[in-house]
Structures are given as structure tokens and as C-alpha cells.
Amino acid sequence: MQVRVQNEAFNLGEEANNFARGRHDLGAIVTFSGVVRDDSAGGLQGMDIEHYPGMTESALKSIADEAQTRWSLGDVLVIHRYGRLMPGEVIMMVATAARHRKDAFEAAEFLMDYLKSRAPFWKKEFTSDGADWVASKDEDEAALNRWQ
Amino acid sequence: MDILYFAWVRERIGIPKERVETKAATVADLVQELRAREERYDLAFSDLSALRVAIDQELSDFDAPLNDAREVAFFPPMTGG
What we know:
The complex is a heterodimer. Chain A is built from four helices and eight strands; from the N terminus they run E-H-E-E-H-E-E-E-H-E-E-H. Chain A is an alpha+beta fold.
């Protein structure tokens, strides 16, 4: 299992290729990547991602640990960036490897649902109208219920 | 005890971190002490339903005891992913 919290961009293709490499017992690999989305028709100038150093890493690790206890996984990777990002840039990725796809898909969804509202990251959007913190959504909190 | 603020809580209070001497028994008691200090604290903590708290880097509740907490952090609901 690997968890990385970093400012630098990462190469999604390279990370996906290297993930679970050489593990011939794992027949299914799921990767998800989150991208900076412009909801203002070209008006988004950038996004700042703030985090809580220390707690971020431990929260991500415990979410990944929980995924490994719930599903039969061969490996888990979580990478999440912080700092200033531009529209279209990759913010984060998760990858899960399992013998079969059901475990890999479900674990990836679980990781994303928890990471959205239980890992200490906060997004601030910059547009020509100014800067605004992105509000959490009720549906993100509701998404956790199905895993209870 | 170190108190940390993130996102708009940090912006409203104007600092990311401070050290306080407190005998507050719970997070709620600590919040009361902070609110009594200055208007910027009072405003930042005016709606606790819009805030989350972590004690020693673990998510917690406002009625949780502080015991020997070294670090308490206040922030809005998280928006990762």
C-alpha cells in the first residue's frame, strides 16, 4: 500500500503502469483520477488545495487500511496533490488491484467516497469574480452511508 | 496546546496556528474561551454546524474531552478528491 501527498504533478500513465507490476496473481486493476473542473464556462483561473500535513497522511492511510480489510486487495495506491492547480490538471488518483474486478471497483469507490469528506483537504477556486472556498455537498456525506 | 485553523477559518481568524494555555475541559469549552477573546474568533465560531474539529489529528466532536490534547484543529467540512 502506498499513500503520497505532494505538491508536484505526477505522471498518471507511469503510476498506472508501475502499479502492482509483476503481481501475476492480480487480474484486475482499477484506476480513478480526479481533475480540476471548471464550472464557470472558462472563468476558472486556478484552484488552491490546502491540507493538514500529518493528519492528511494518517487519514488517507487509515482509509486505505479500511479498504484492505473490507475487500481482498493485492495493492492500493493513493496520490493527492496540494497547492495551486490549473483547470484540467490532475489533482489525485487512486488505484486498486485485486484478483477480480468487483473487489477492485468497489474498493476504489469506497476510497473516493471517504477521501472526499474524511481526508483533510480544502479547495479554493479563483475566478475573475474573486476567490471562493468550495462548499462540501450533502450528497458526499450521504455517499458514506452505503458503506456503513 | 497548539490550535490550528484551516481554510476559511484560518482566513477569518487571520493566523494558521497559535499556542494557548487553557484549562478547558472540552472542545466546546475551548470554543467559548476563544469566542470571548475577540470579534474575529466570535464570528469564525458563530455556527458550529459549519465547522469540524480534530484532536491530535483525529476527527472528533465538539463535546469531546480535551484531556491531554497537544493539538486541536478547526476547519470547515473537507472537500478532497
